[in-house]
Design goal:
Layout lengths: L6 E10 L2 E10 L5 E5 L11 E9 L1 E6 L20 H12 L4 H17 L2 E8 L15 H13 L2 E8 L21 H17 L3 E2 L2 E2 L7 H14 L5 E4 L4 H11 L3 H8 L6 E4 L6 H10 L2 E4 L1 H6 L7 H6 L3 E4 L9 H16 L13 H17 L14 E4 L14 H7 L7 E6 L2 E5 L2 E2 L2 H17 L1
Parallel strand pairs: 1-4, 5-6, 6-7, 7-8, 7-9, 10-11, 11-12, 12-13
Antiparallel strand pairs: 1-2, 2-3, 4-14, 14-15, 15-16, 16-17
Helix pairs in contact: 2-3, 2-14, 4-5, 11-12, 12-13
Bound molecules: zinc ion.
Amino acid sequence: MTSIHPQQIYAKSILLADGWQENVLLQHDSNGVITKIKPQTAKPANFSGKVIEGAVIPGMVNNHSHAFQWAMAGLGEASGETKDSFWTWRKAMYGFVENIAPEDLNHIASALYMQMLKAGYTSVGEFHYLHHDKTGSFYENPAEMSMQIFEAGNNSGIDVTLLPVFYRYSGFGPRDPTDGQKRFIHSQDAYGRLLEQVHLLASEYNQSYGIAPHSLRAVAREDLEFAVKALRSQSTTAPVHIHIAEQTKEVDDCIAHYGERPVEWLYNHLSPDETWCLVHATHLTPEEVTSIADSKAVVSICTTTEANLGDGFFPMLDYKSQQGRWSVGSDSHISVNATEELRWLEYQQRLRERSRTVLVDGANSSTGNWLWTQAAQGGAQSLQQPVGQIAIGHKANFLELNTDSLVFVGKSKEQLLDAFIFNQADTDTIASVWVNGIKLVEQGAHHAEERIIESFKESMTKLQRA
Ligand SMILES: [Zn+2]
């Protein structure tokens, strides 16, 4: 972890929790945590800190990532012999992952996280399930692959919350794992040991962690309860993420096994609270929508991946009307672009409702402002991290919009986020990206770009040949 010097930053304009402010003096400590915010103030004489000329907004949280899947993004788009579905995509994915070695995971994740930073994501929740070698044997260090994810966090500078996946079965029943799943599998004991190691690694790397019981089909009830209990013996607040109702087949299989739908079952038998994140809560009844909203858990909506895989629509309007909390993730990384995830979340509803500005209420409300701030704060809650807004006690994770970009010319401050999300005519919209008060990206270039790209190419060339 790079050591951080306490520092002052002077921003010409900045989006705080209560709106835009001009001429703001901001100070962070040696952990990159904001200790002081003073708006409407003149730049001190002999100011030796950093000056930011553009408009500063909170960094976005990407709370659902499977880093290794980026290596095959774009490879699943040719038609197959049978009608393509999520399940044929998954089979292709299993074939590709077979040859990914620890250094490859490091290289792929480092490059991916660099791309995330360039796109305005400053935190990532890594739902990490590639644990073992290609024969399914544990590495000498069973947390080897988890460590590579933290290394990639270091290489890129992004904030990482590692969510090691607990995966036991190939389906409800429980059914034995398939050969393609052998790199993912743990017994309860082995998962408990992994979790202890991840706890130590997180503190060594100054990063965060939680757990990710993969889904109700991949763990039995006692496994899910075991994982939550093991986590709570280490941390009372670390997050719990689970894939919940992505595909209708998954819902049907759950009903066949448990006699209940996935979300229905989860709320009848466990007590998800604000530390939980339900990923792909796509197929819900109105009662399930209410259960999630009332529990204050966060849903993770992965708009572009869910579209790519043909999952279905999340019932956003019903959920929003009940103050449901939500966030975004780039999941399989067929798109690494926060504005695209958010824009299409709104467009889905416009197309369905045959209406416009569907997600905001009242006159003159900015859709872009609502989407960005809600997603960032929901993402922060889902990782249980002090991020997602620029405020005292929060990490200095933010981006500077390039107000000289053609899409921002002639816009007021209040219109900037609408232009950022809905005007896609210029790629030059982000001037710089900061994590823990450190500038990692400037004018589209990452500080370790050459080294990261070279390593990525090396691994991808090797995997292509394999
Ligand atoms: Zn996922």
